[in-house]
Amino acid sequence: MKIISTSQAPAAIGPYSQAVDIGSMVFMSGQLPVNPVTEDMPEGIQAQTQQALNNIKAILHEAGLNVADIVKTTVFMKDLSNFALANEVYENFFSENNALFPGRSCVEVARLPKDAEIEIEVVAYRK
Q1: Coil, strand or helix: which one is 125?
Q2: Which helix or strand (DSSP H or E) is residue 30 part of?
Q3: 106 catalytic, yes or no?
Q4: Fewer beta carbons under 10 A from the terminal one: N or C of the chain?
């Protein structure tokens, strides 16, 4: 087992790793929409979704993987009435990275760390 960590994504805010690599699989912790340089969160669900996905891409890169290697995502949202807006950014992200759409779960939650609007976690497979 190998811990994956990069300064190109926000540092863990608790006792966990950005991701864990077990050889053929990488399990990523939920990524908040925090800019790793400024430590700020953008306003609005679309900008927050994009930032969370950018953080995911940076961690995948550190693990030697790319967006096309994602096999499962779990999306946590504070307000599912924003689903269509987040989904548009999500769809563009996978399309722009020439990746198939992975399996996905999406749930509404009462609250997320740092009062984020969205958090996304992924599982990736190393071929």
Answers
A1: strand
A2: none
A3: yes
A4: C
Rounded Cα distance, 118 and 80, in Å: 10
100 SS3 class? coil
Contact residues for 62 (Cβ-Cβ < 8 A; gap 6+): 4, 5, 6, 8, 9, 18, 19
Q: Among 113, 106, 127, 118, which residue's Cα sits nearest to residue 12?
A: 113
pTM greater than 0.85 (yes/no): yes
Q: Find all residues with CB under 8 Å of 95, minimum gap 6, and list them.
A: none
Instruction: List per-block mean pLDDT (blocks of 10 residues) for the chain, which spans 127 residues.
Output: 97 95 98 97 98 98 98 98 98 98 98 98 97
Residues in the chain: 127
